[in-house]
Specification:
There is one protein chain. The protein is of the alpha/beta class and about 290 residues long. It contains 9 helices and 8 strands. The protein has helices at about 45-55, 80-90, 95-110, 120-140, 160-180, 200-210, 210-220, 225-240, 245-255, and strands at about 1-5, 5-10, 15-20, 25-30, 35-40, 40-45, 60, 70. A 4-stranded mixed sheet has the order 1-5-7-8. Helix 2 crosses helix 3 (about 95-110) and helix 5 (about 160-180) runs parallel beside helix 8 (about 225-240). It starts with a strand and ends in a 33-residue tail after the last helix.
Length: about 290
């Protein structure tokens, strides 16, 4: 995942290039990039968007430092069979609860309480998340009030919130890339609902406290001059070392399979996912431990 600011993105000799105001060209290996985050001051040619869609690279339009997500492209082409499968699970309250319980189990490494509704599990989750923020703030000796700030007054936000927002934005970007690449809809969520990235938030939350949140508090404790940039660079390194993109798509499949229904078979003429699941020796859902 890379960030681009103040430049024109175009295609030259079949390759992505960024041309800044001085005319300097920087080549981007678009085929090996999962997600390109476009910050303010960026313009994109039609040819560049076409190339990104061809190679399965997601383009996301974000605010300064990547702290807001405004719009995104669609790599590869969404598959109707995956969308229908996801929608069926989300619309049936019994199936939705099964999926939410699986998300809870993966996130907290324990089975959720029995006979709880989605709303009740959401409330339990919220309490645990707030406590985790407090514990991490104590661990890194960071002054912590709450996860709250005015989105319209970014510069007035305290340092921990700025670091957390920058870090989670990076995670949302790469998670959205995985969701779209696998052929699912970012807006059709299970715990989160009613937002353009509800499902992205659902899946990203499974990795948030394992990856970017401790990182954000660690950086906030150092009070760097450019906290957002420091966060982005560190997130990049964590994403590479943890190989998170290759883990997200199997996790999506595992979570949705908890609903207990089989996805419909794709029509023969359907477009395959941009990042297909590797062929295995076992049946669907079987993975060899390594």
């Amino acid at each position: 995942m890379i960030f681009i600011q103040n430049g024109q993105i175009d295609v030259l000799d079949g390759a992505f290039v960024v041309v800044d105001k001085s005319g300097v060209r920087t080549h981007i290996p678009v085929g090996s990039v999962a997600c390109i985050m476009l910050e303010p001051g960026t313009r994109v040619s039609h040819a560049a968007v076409h190339l990104a869609s061809t190679v399965g690279t997601l383009m996301v339009w974000v605010g300064e430092a990547g702290v807001r997500l405004y719009a995104s492209g669609q790599p590869g082409g969404a598959r109707a069979d995956r969308l229908l499968y996801q929608a069926k699970l989300a619309l049936d309250e019994e199936l939705r609860l099964k999926v939410v319980r699986k998300m809870y189990e993966l996130r907290f490494q324990e089975l959720p309480p029995e006979r709880r509704s989605v709303e009740q599990l959401r409330g339990i989750e919220g309490v645990r998340v707030r406590e985790t923020y407090k514990l991490l703030a104590q661990q890194f000796s960071v002054e912590w009030k709450s996860r709250n700030y005015d989105h319209q007054k970014w510069d007035a936000a305290d340092l921990p919130n700025r670091c957390l927002s920058a870090a989670t934005s990076c995670l949302y970007g790469i998670t959205e890339a995985a969701v779209l690449a696998a052929g699912y809809a970012p807006a059709v969520g299970f715990i989160h609902t009613g937002k353009p990235l509800s499902f992205v938030y659902d899946i990203a939350d499974l990795y948030k406290f394992e990856t970017v949140v401790p990182l954000a508090f660690k950086i906030a404790s150092k009070s760097p001059e450019q906290p957002e940039r420091e966060v982005r660079l560190c997130c990049r390194d964590v994403f590479r070392s943890s190989k998170i993109l290759s883990r997200i798509i199997p996790t999506i499949e595992e979570v949705l399979s908890a609903g207990g229904i089989l996805p419909p078979k794709a029509p023969s003429e359907s477009v395959p996912p941009a990042i297909p699941n590797p062929e295995g020796f076992g049946e669907v859902g079987h993975r060899i431990a390594g």
